[in-house]
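Notes for week 9. Today we move from apo structures to complexes. The key idea is that a small molecule is not decoration. When we ask for a structure prediction with fe (ii) ion present, the ligand SMILES becomes part of the input, just like the chain. The input block below holds both the sequence and the ligand string. Read it once before you look at the output, and try to guess where the molecule might sit.
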Amino acid sequence: MDEKNELTIEEAYKMLEEAPRKNKELWVSHSVNVAIVAERLAENLGLDSKRAYVFGLIHDIGRGKKEHTGIRHIIDGYNYLMKLGYEDEARICLTHTFYDRSIVKGNLTKRNTNLTRAEIKFIEDFINKTKFNLYDKILQIADNMGSATGINTIERRRAESMLRYGISHVSEKNLKTIFAVQNEIEIKLGRSIYSLFPEVTDNINKTMIKDVMKFLK
Ligand SMILES: [Fe+2]
């Protein structure tokens, strides 16, 4: 039998509480919203919604390891959870960032802040040998819908990110591949993912564009 450790919701919250880092409120509330999205998607897909909730809570736990980690947070989170024996949770730290194998290299070299050559190679090999399961895909979508302030459309989240990091062939590929994941999940659900999240409409109705796009005053 598979005897993998499974992190409980309580333990995952404890990890978030103990994470020492500035701007913690932002990524912690992002993580809680990601957990809410992941949980609901899992529930509607007939998966274990508690597991999906835990994955949402800890997917960015590497951000608690160092200041200004950037893309480093994925490997820091992976190593931290692997050391504790949480293999499935560790996997999510890496898989939530890459929606398709074709975007691994571009994303790592573009946003490669202080990753060693060996770490880049490790991440590439890991993603290349991993066949994404539904939990990986749910978390990819959830990461793109849960923001620090609430639950949003993927389009809003990606537009905000492109304006922050720049529009390039990498961001174009990220956009195309996340929509392909959305398509796959919606076909399984038989409905739009947004039909499960009335919060998205509330959020759009409540917020003005200047609250979303920070460059507007
Ligand atoms: Fe995230």
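Residues 30, 34, 59-60, 143 surround fe (ii) ion (CB under 6 Å).
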